[in-house]
Amino acid sequence: MADMGGAEQRTMAQAVATRLWNSRWLLAAGIVAVLTVYGFANMSFYVVLLACAVLLLAAAMLPAGVARQSAEDAAAIEAGGLQQLSGEYLAAAVADPLIIFDRTATIVHANAAAFAAFGGIAPGMSLSLKFRAPEMQALLDSILSGAAASDVVEYTEKLPVERAYRVSASSVGHGTDLYVLVFKDQSEARRIDRMRADFIANASHELRTPLASISGFIETLRGPARNDPAAREQFLQIMHNQTGRMARLIDDLLSLSRLEMKPYLKPGTEVDLRQTLDSVIDSLGPLARENGVAIERDFAKGPLNVPGDRDELFQVFENLLENACKYGQSGGRVVVTIAHSDDGPEPGIDVTIRDFGPGIPEEHIPRITERFYRVDVENSRTQKGTGLGLSIVKHILTRHNARLSITSEVGNGAAFTVHLLAH
């Protein structure tokens, strides 16, 4: 208790000291006035002390009143400013579609975002006629009947394009008989959720297939093929191939994950495309010979440097050249071209890897860089493809502010061109 009393006394003393300091100029002027009167009027010294004491007391008390008045003035200014803000201004400041309506579910006001999202709405229109979906009708009934002060539903707008919204409804203030609907667009979040679900489903399927194959062969080796050396060797080779396929898939999944988590490239690093492409071609020489494919070079003269990460660009060209050697082997050759480009707003360098195989049907080209998308599923798996190579290429090029274009004609091969900025 004694400690509490001491704390209160210290707080009070600090408050008095603050008030005296805030009134120091007024206090100084008063003391000077008293001393002046004392000097010229032969005033008693005790009267002077009493006058100074009164001045100190006034100085200690006056700021509290001034502070209260200042707070009241600030509150009045704030209230006046808010009164000048109409509901229209407040609605316009909201980025999401917002609609204000009355007790009859008639639109009183809609902001610009609402007009853009739901064309054809206007003050005086009935919300019940505009939004006929059962969930929206239930939401309006719940709010207007007073069953709930606020409520939230999920709503999908079908036209002109499908959009998913989280719609919240609530009353505006007290006794205004006005209500507000706010539409929070969830379309992008839903799209990302679907992509994630599809990715997990595809990855699970790609891993489950070789696992099922390995499991089946293990059962066979334990049973009917237990004492059959030829069958055992064949099955072990298949199991080895299937584990290799799973290892490649896991490596590609990890590559994608690392790419998505990496920050953008730091400026200042350069890659010599001539040296990089030579290294890629040399590393894939055995694969080309195995498939009966000749790799031809057509490189422009002079320096061929671009900003970027050498290891990542090496991976891009390795993926593209490997695909050309595997899927275009019937053409017998692959041409790797490096050429200067002046088509864009900035000078660039184009790297094209062209094969002369069966080509890619036109309807598949827009989707060929999607994860796990395959033009020919059986042929892709035969060639030990994971379905992630072009997705990795796309991610790396995005990080390099570059792009990939694909041209193909069935029967005449395909050309994959990487467009890189030179500076």
Automatic annotation (TrEMBL):
GO BP term, example: cellular response to phosphate starvation
Catalytic activity: ATP + protein L-histidine = ADP + protein N-phospho-L-histidine
GO molecular function: ATP binding; phosphoprotein phosphatase activity; phosphorelay sensor kinase activity
Stored InterPro entries: BphY/WalK/GraS-like, HATPase_C_sf, HATPase_dom, His_kinase_dom, HisK_dim/P_dom, HisK_dim/P_sf, Sig_transdc_His_kin-like_C
Compartments, record wording: Cell membrane
Residue spans crossing the bilayer: 21-40, 46-67
Histidine kinase domain span: 202-423
Organism superkingdom: Bacteria
Top-rank EC class of the record's enzyme: transferase
Key words, A-Z: ATP-binding, Cell membrane, Kinase, Membrane, Nucleotide-binding, Phosphoprotein, Transferase, Transmembrane, Transmembrane helix, Two-component regulatory system
GO cellular component, one term: plasma membrane
Keyword field contains Transmembrane: yes
Pfam family, one: HATPase_c
Keyword Phosphoprotein: yes
The enzyme's E.C. designation: 2.7.13.3
Name recorded for this polypeptide: histidine kinase
Source organism phylogeny: Bacteria, Pseudomonadati, Pseudomonadota, Alphaproteobacteria, Hyphomicrobiales
